[in-house]
């Protein structure tokens, strides 16, 4: 199977890059499954139902979220009727929506998509390791699921690496999101799980984490109230990881980083071209 995971969509720049480029990439690389983190898709803060539909229609099979899940209040309602939109699984019991779901992709594959949030330097939540265990026990790789994609939305690289090794051999891909800066450590772990500490973002990289630079710089210089953070308006770059899995085991065979657009050095899975 061929899986593409893209990091946090930030604002219109990120959305436009996804909507313009994803249909072509799906076809060119013959992708079986596309998962994208969409927690900053609506003006940098959360996701609306209209944007969710737009990203799914562009070729995403599932969308994951993170600490910005509820920034748009309508998400509390529409997440219940959108099985392809996932919020962190380790939110408290009774939280609307789902943290994991077995998705049928456009190619007919059954992919378990799991979203969890780390706890270091983030909100206090339930144990993300226990939450993933539960999701994977319900839907084992190679038996119920053809592939398993886990988005670990976390600040600390240590927590994301620990999760990768903890799930090694049980998931097809464990990928971090949230920092908006891609890491260079994409690889297949010894047990066969593809791993990358952070997928980066889909957005304008001539920015501070996708936001126009002036206000973030000002906040580091002055401790006075400022203005709202606004997403960068320049051309967006797609950033993430491409994974090829073994059809029998569901484990990863090879990986490549994906960066397409201005500002970052471009890279893509040449073994699919
Ligand atoms: Fe984000
Ligand atoms: Fe985040």
TrEMBL record:
InterPro entries: Metallo-depent_PP-like, YmdB-like. One of its GO terms (molecular function) is metal ion binding. SUPFAM superfamilies: Metallo-dependent phosphatases. Belongs to the YmdB-like family. It comes from Microvirga makkahensis. The keyword Transmembrane helix does not apply. Fe cation 2 binds at residues 39, 67, 153, 178. Fe cation 1 binds at residues 8, 39-40, 180. This is TIGR00282 family metallophosphoesterase. PANTHER family: 2',3'-CYCLIC-NUCLEOTIDE 2'-PHOSPHODIESTERASE. The keyword Metal-binding applies. The active site is at residue 68. Pfam families: YmdB (PF13277). CDD domains: MPP_DR1281 (cd07382). Keywords: Hydrolase, Iron, Metal-binding.
């Amino acid at each position: 199977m061929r899986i593409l995971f893209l990091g946090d969509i930030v604002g219109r720049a990120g959305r436009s890059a996804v909507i313009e480029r994803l249909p072509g990439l799906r076809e060119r690389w013959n992708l079986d499954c596309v998962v994208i983190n969409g927690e900053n898709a609506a003006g940098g803060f959360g996701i609306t139902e209209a944007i969710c539909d737009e990203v799914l229609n562009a070729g995403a099979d599932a969308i994951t979220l993170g600490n910005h899940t509820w920034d748009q209040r309508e998400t509390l309602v529409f997440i219940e009727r959108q099985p392809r939109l996932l919020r962190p699984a380790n939110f408290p019991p009774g939280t609307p929506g789902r943290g994991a779901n077995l998705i049928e992709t456009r190619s007919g594959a059954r992919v378990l998509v799991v979203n969890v949030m780390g706890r270091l330097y983030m909100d206090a939540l339930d144990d993300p390791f226990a939450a993933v265990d539960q999701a994977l026990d319900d839907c084992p790789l190679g038996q119920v699921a053809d592939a398993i994609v886990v988005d670990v939305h976390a600040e600390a690289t240590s927590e994301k690496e620990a999760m990768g090794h903890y799930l090694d051999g049980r998931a097809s891909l464990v990928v971090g999101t949230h920092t908006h800066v891609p890491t260079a450590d994409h690889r297949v772990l010894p047990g066969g799980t593809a791993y990358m500490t952070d997928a980066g973002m889909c957005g304008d990289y001539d920015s501070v984490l996708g936001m126009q630079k002036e206000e973030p710089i000002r906040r580091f210089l002055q401790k006075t109230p400022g203005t709202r953070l606004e997403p960068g308006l320049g051309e967006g770059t797609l950033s993430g990881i491409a994974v090829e899995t073994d059809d029998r085991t569901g484990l990863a065979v090879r990986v490549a980083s994906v960066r397409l657009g201005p500002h970052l050095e471009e890279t893509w899975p040449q073994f699919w071209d």
